[in-house]
Known about the structure:
The protein is of the alpha/beta class. It contains 13 helices and 10 strands. Helix 1 packs across helix 8 (147-155), helix 8 packs across helix 13 (287-296) and helix 12 (261-275) packs across helix 13.
Amino acid sequence: MLSLASSFVYALLTDRVLLVDFDDSMSGLFCEPFPDDATWLLPGDFTFKGRSNGEKFRGVYSLGNLLEKSEKKHDEEIAVQATALLYLYLSGDNNYDMLFYRDDTQKLLTNVPWLVLRSDQHFVPYFFVMPGFRAELDRLFPDKEAVFQHVGRYLFSPTNRVWGRVARFYDTYLAKAEQRIGLQVRVFYPDKTPASLMLPHILRCMQVVSGILPRSRTLKAVLVASLLEEFYTELKGGGGGVAAVGVYQTSHEGWQETGNGAHNVKALVDIYLLSMCDVLVTSHFSTFGYVAHSLAGLRPWYLQNPGDYEAKRNEPACVRAVSPEPCFHFHPYYDTNSANHGDAAGGGPAPVIMNCEDYEWGFKLANLKY
């Protein structure tokens, strides 16, 4: 959802039509976002449908490969403008692929009819430090901390299949609570950070650092979104002194099942339920958590990595986000023409990006004041 929203913003900035190539696991999740019987789905019989993941496709049509080869011949402009289709791979750190984020490259791409874009990143923040895009972005998004919220709420309307589950769960378990607390836990390395290590870390965040889960009789509901059941079970059983609080979980799949449609439905249900909470605690570096708190427009508490918990026992278990916006993890590290990125506040007529609270090498949007 992060990369799709970013692609939509890019289409707006460059006067392009956005088409998506969903596989079967993505069908039935979202309604069509555009009116008048228009569709954003790539036709089933389209020439390169389903082929964009192949190495051969990437090798032949890749912008990065083309620029790398052309640089040696000093004919980048001729090579790009003579191409009818280019593949933009924006998920890695290849220096030539990252040349996409330069204004001079964007000028070359204006004459390429078809761009096939693949990414798993929220790359919108970098557009704000590209001089060619900045003025239009300022007109579209005067509030830099609501970019994904506006785009996401327009693009991602869940189907009845998804929304029915969301509504039933909310009405049954969350609606009557005086405060709804969303806890999203993503364990990236279970061997290094087992649930037994994570749980005291979570409780330290929710009770000591943030104070969002005090030992009181306030009617609160805690929604646990995690692939694992242990966190829900421990909290439900009164672990950490939270017995007076209602604790709920929609599902616990055990592990992530990429390409599984039923799994995707459950994940999307959790995202929308989390976005309906009043307070959020989410895992650091988790794109799942980013979508939930950005849709809600909430500044979450980011759980710090407890992998070296013993060494960091005296440090905060979580930190409060400055901005609700998602983090762009793997951005380019060069100057974008005249915009200097030596520090995260640089670029454009006013500083609007900062280093991410949960990943210091990443960038995110914020309404910064200096």
